[in-house]
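Supplementary Methods. Inverse-folding protocol.

Structures were first reduced to a discrete structure-token string of length 635. This string, shown here, constituted the complete conditioning input.
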């Protein structure tokens, strides 16, 4: 059956209860459990019974003691720190001596105030580190602190290779040895599976379910796209609150401070990464160690000239909404793998050769398969003449274009125009300024064309590993007889990598452009047994499922919020023999596994799956992100 070329909407049913409305008990029965602080459960699990699992946490009796000895402020008045109920609560501005116990989901250090059990979170502390923190925020029944000074570091602390590591929002754990990062990630998943997923670690049946984390073979230069996600956004944003001239934000008292204004009072602008916690401040960077070297070469070239007054390029001001340049997005092919394979060969000559040189040497012999690079300028209006000097500069960089005999990279330069006041990098219109409008990447033997706005796994190297694990979990019989349902299919990559070994793939995805990319990718690879349909899986109606046969395998790869209750109920009714759940958020993953295996207690719905394996995968070294591949079988 040919795949559908026209996008077909899912049978839609509007969400009955907009999440912002106050929920009545009936409404609550249709919603998912709240997972605002899943990490609290590890410490407070004693208060949660399996039957009435509550995510509303309350201070424990031991926290109700008033504390005096743990505050080290001179003017400490700990007694006044107790809240009305008499439970311990540190005061804003209070300084505490703390030890980081582990890392919570966003990479924040989890600490307990000694003898009270009161939980505080602190950014940029490492497990085992003893430090002094100042309370900055009270939040429900925990507090956030800012590190003032380290008393004794954790023994797994290492020197971060990136000069921006201590204050950039992208890599939070570069100063923790990679082995320790992996241990922390694995432990986080284990804790969530036990406390949120309710898979007891004391149950012998669960003992072999949780697999050791799969490390990432490359720890730098692995990102193929630097974009708006995870604070790793390149933006051209006016710096606010300027005082001194400098092109960098600096760290002072644990906080980012601007260091800026020229002597003549002129405001300074930056091109770089979002400073964590600030939508309007950007950390000027010349290099990011997570992205490819050619992308860094382009970044340096743009940094070199965009401030030139003669070019008349005005950066976008998020406050006044005036200005032209909004974002610079860099997307590259598999530069690292490409270079590494040749470096390994060259190492046999026992000589050190820089990566760039290796790539140039390599490219002399190879006519196809060169890694490609896309540069996307997001601007507030379409003015190609203004961008012309930048396009000329980038397209003449020897490392990124074909020059003479050195065919190194293919470069595509795009312009997404976004006139809205928001900070989004997706354009309302797209123009090709140089080269073609897509770059090509290969994954598990297939070729994918990626446009500026399409989703593609950001670590292609580790995506190979992830997709192999997914295929292993799918447990294909090898006779090409299975039906696969690929939920949250994006540009169809998972389904397409399985398509040649199965009877048919049905993919569902909300973003229309991703669906057209999926169709194009199917054609490009000569695959005709895959249908891709555009629709919102949070809004499926009663008829969802009528347009495809009962699948043998469901692949579900939702984004961070996990699956909607409607989809959980659909899957529990569908009863496909296997579900491979791929998740980028172990907290919502654990919650959804709980529903699928143990049921939805509040709605008297029984679970019908058994968790066979849960495999954490490190896709993003030095960041808090964790991917998991879970296999569920009908019980
Ligand atoms: C983690 S990505 C997975 C993409 C794809 N499976 C892959 O490996 O490349 C999640 C995908 O779910 C899509 N998505 C998010 N919310 C959705 C919804 N409510 N309905 C359908 N698709 C959704 C996103 O657009 C994104 O493409």
């Amino acid at each position: 059956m040919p795949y559908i070329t026209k996008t077909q909407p899912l049978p839609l049913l509007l969400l009955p209860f907009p999440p912002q409305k106050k929920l009545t008990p009936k409404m609550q029965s249709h919603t998912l459990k709240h997972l605002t602080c899943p990490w609290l459960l590890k410490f407070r699990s004693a208060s949660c019974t399996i039957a009435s699992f509550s995510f509303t946490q309350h201070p424990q009796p031991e926290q109700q003691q008033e504390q005096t000895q743990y505050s080290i402020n001179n003017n400490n008045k700990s007694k006044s720190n107790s809240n009305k109920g008499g439970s311990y609560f540190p005061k804003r501005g209070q300084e505490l001596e703390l030890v980081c116990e582990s890392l919570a989901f966003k990479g924040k250090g989890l600490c307990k105030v000694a003898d009270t059990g009161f939980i505080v979170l602190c950014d940029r502390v490492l497990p085992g580190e003893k430090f002094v923190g100042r309370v900055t925020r009270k939040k429900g029944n925990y507090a956030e602190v800012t590190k003032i000074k380290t008393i004794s570091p954790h023994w797994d602390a290492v020197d971060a290779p990136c000069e921006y590591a201590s204050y950039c929002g992208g890599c939070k754990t570069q100063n923790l040895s990679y082995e320790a990062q992996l241990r922390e990630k694995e432990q986080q998943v284990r804790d969530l599976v036990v406390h949120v997923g309710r898979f007891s670690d004391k149950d012998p049946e669960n003992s072999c379910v949780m697999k050791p984390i799969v490390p990432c073979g490359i720890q730098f230069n692995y990102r193929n796209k630097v974009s708006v996600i995870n604070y790793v956004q390149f933006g051209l944003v006016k710096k606010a609150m300027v005082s001194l001239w400098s092109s960098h934000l600096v760290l002072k008292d644990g906080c980012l401070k601007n260091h800026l204004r020229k002597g003549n009072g002129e405001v300074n602008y930056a091109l770089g990464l979002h400073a964590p916690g600030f939508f309007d401040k950007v950390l000027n960077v010349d290099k990011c160690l997570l992205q490819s070297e050619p992308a860094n070469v382009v970044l340096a070239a743009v940094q070199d000239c965009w401030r030139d007054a003669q070019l008349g390029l005005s950066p976008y001001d998020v406050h006044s909404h005036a200005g032209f340049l909004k974002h610079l997005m860099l997307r590259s092919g598999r530069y690292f793998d490409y270079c590494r394979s040749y470096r390994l060969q060259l190492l046999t000559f026992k000589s050190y050769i820089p990566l760039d040189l290796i790539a140039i040497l390599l490219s002399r012999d190879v006519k196809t398969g060169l890694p490609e690079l896309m540069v996307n300028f997001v601007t507030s209006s379409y003015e190609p003449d203004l961008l012309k000097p930048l396009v000329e500069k980038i397209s003449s960089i020897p490392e990124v274009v074909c020059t003479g005999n050195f065919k190194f990279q293919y470069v595509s330069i795009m312009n997404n125009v976004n006139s809205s006041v928001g900070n989004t990098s997706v354009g309302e219109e797209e123009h090709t300024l140089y080269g073609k409008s897509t770059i090509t990447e290969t994954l598990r033997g297939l070729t994918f064309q990626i446009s500026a706005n399409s989703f593609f796994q950001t670590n292609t190297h580790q995506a190979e590993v992830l997709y192999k694990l997914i295929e292993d979990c799918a447990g294909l019989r090898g006779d090409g007889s299975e039906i696969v349902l690929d939920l949250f299919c994006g540009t169809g990559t998972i389904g397409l990598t399985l398509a040649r070994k199965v009877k048919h793939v049905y993919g569902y995805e909300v973003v229309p452009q991703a669906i057209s990319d999926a169709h194009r990718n199917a054609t490009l690879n000569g695959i005709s047994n895959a249908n891709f349909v555009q629709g919102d899986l949070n809004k499926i109606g009663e008829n969802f499922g009528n347009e495809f046969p009962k699948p043998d395998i469901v692949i579900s790869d939702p984004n961070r919020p996990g699956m909607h209750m409607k989809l959980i109920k659909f899957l529990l009714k569908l009863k496909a023999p296997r579900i491979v759940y791929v998740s980028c958020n172990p907290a919502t993953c654990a919650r959804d596994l709980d529903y699928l295996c143990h049921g939805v207690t509040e709605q008297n719905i029984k679970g019908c799956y058994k968790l066979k394996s849960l495999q954490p995968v490190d896709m993003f070294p030095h960041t808090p992100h964790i991917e998991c591949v879970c296999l569920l079988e009908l019980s």
